[in-house]
Amino acid sequence: xxxxxxxxxxxALVLTSLSWASDISEEAKTSxxxxxxxxxxxxxxxxxxxxxxxxxxxxxxxxxxxNGRIHRHFCIWDPLGKLGPIASTVQDQTVRSVHYGLxxxxxxxxxxxxxxxxxxxxxxxxxxxxxxALAREFNKxxxxxxxxxxxxxxxxxxxxxxxxxxxxxxxxxTDGEYTVMGFATIGGNYAFMRDKAYNSLSALEGKQVAVxxxxxxxxxxxxxxxxxxxxxxxxxxxxxxTDGRVSSMISTAIAYxxxxxxxxxxxxxxxxxxxxxxxxxxxxxxEQFPDELAQLLREDFLLxxxxxxxxxxxxxxxxxxxxxxxxxxxxTNKLEDATREVRLTMRENGYYDGTMLRIARKIRCRFNxxxxxxxxxxx
Length: 379
Known about the structure:
Oligomer: single chain
Low-confidence stretches: 1-24
Number of strands: 11
Radius of gyration: 26 Å
CATH superfamily of the largest domain: Bacterial extracellular solute-binding protein, family 7
Helix content: 40-55%
CATH architecture of the largest domain: 3-Layer(aba) Sandwich
C-alpha cells in the first residue's frame, strides 16, 4: 500500500479521534454550565424555599467548602470593643451564618481606620463591617445610603432594605473586587449641642462644629449654615465636645455611648431629628463571596432588620428625654432644602451615587407624595 495513503489514513483517524474527544469534552462542559446555571437560578429565586436555596448553594460551591462549610474571616469595628453593642450583635449573627453554610471567625477592631487599612493591604479579612460613610470607598451605591437627608426616618431605611434585596439590583452590589452583603441600622447621625437653647442648625452660625473627617457632606452642611467645621475622628470629636472646645458635634448616635451615657453636662442636648441614617455595612471580597452567597446574606439582614433596630432602641433608651431638643417646623423645612442642595452638589462632584439618590427620593415620596420633590423631582 502506498505510504502516503497510509499516512493520510492515520492522520485522518487521529484527527477524528481528537474531534470525538473534543465533542465529549464540550458536551460535558455544556452539561456542567447548564447545571451551574440551574443552581444559580434557584439560589437567586426568592420564590423558592430558603432551605432549597441553601442546598443549591452548597452544591454549586461544594469545591469551596471544608466539612460542608465555607470558612471566612470577618473583621468588625466597635468603638467599645468586644463588649460593645455592634460586637455583641455580630457574635449572635455568626450562629445564624451556619445555616447558610458559613463557618465565620471574627476579629474586633476599636480603630476603624486601622480596620480599613488591614482590609486593603493585609488581606487577612475576607469581609469587614464598617460604617456606611467608610463603606462608600468600596461601593459608592451602598455608601450613598447615608446621604444627608435622603432617608429622614427609620421606616425609609427599612423600605430601602427591601428594595436592596431585589436580585435585579445585584449588578449594583459589586464594584470591582468588593461586594456589598447587607447593612443594619445603628440609629442616625445627629447634631449634639452644647446648649439646649440651640434648637436648630441656624444657631451654629459663627460657631465651631466638630465633624468627622470622613463626612464631607456634613462639613458642607455646616458651612452652608455659617458654622466653622472642625474635622477629626470620632474619639477626638467626642473629647472636643465634652471639653467644651466646640459648640456642637455632628456624629452617629454611638457617640452618646462613647461619652459614657452622655455625661457632657446638664445644659447639653441633641436635635431629635437625625441629619441622616447611620448604618453598619458588610463589605466582602467578591472572589470570596460569590453573588449567590452575597444575595442570601443581604436577605438575612432584611430578615433581622427589626431585631437590629430593637437593639439600637435599647441603647437609645439610655438617653434621657430631657436630652432631646425639638426643632421648630420652619427650621425643619429649611433643613430639608439645605440637605437637598448638599446632596445635589455631592452628586455632581461624584461623591454620591445618582441611582441611589433617585431610589431614596422615590421612597420619600412613597410616604409623602404631596411633597414638591415628588411633583418636580431633581434627584
